[in-house]
Amino acid sequence: MIRVKQIKVSIDKNTKEEIKEKVIKKLHIPPADVLDIKIKKQSLDAREKPNLFFVYDLLVTIKHEQKYLKKNRNKDIVLYQEETFEVKEIGSKKMNTRPIVVGSGPAGLFCAYLLAFYGYKPIIIERGEDIEKRVKAIEQFWQTNRLNENNNVQFGLGGAGTFSDGKLNTLVKDKRHIGRKVFEIFVECGAPKEIMYVNKPHIGTDLLRKVISTLKEKIESMGGEFYFHTCLTDISIKNHKLEKIEINNKQWFECENLILAIGHSARDTFEMLLKRNVSIQQKPFAVGIRIQHPQEMINRAQYGKTDSKELGPASYKLTYKTKSGKGVYSFCMCPGGYVINASSEQNHLAINGMSNHARDTKNANSAILVTVDKSDFGIGILDGMYFQRALEEKAYQVGKGNIPIQTYKDFKSNQKSTNLGKVEAIYKGSYTLTNLQEIFPENINQSLIEAIDYFDTKIKGFAREDALLAAVESRSSSPVRIKRDENYLSNIQGIYPCGEGAGYAGGITTSAMDGIKIAEQIIKTYQKP
Question: What is the pTM of this model?
Answer without folding.
Answer: 0.96
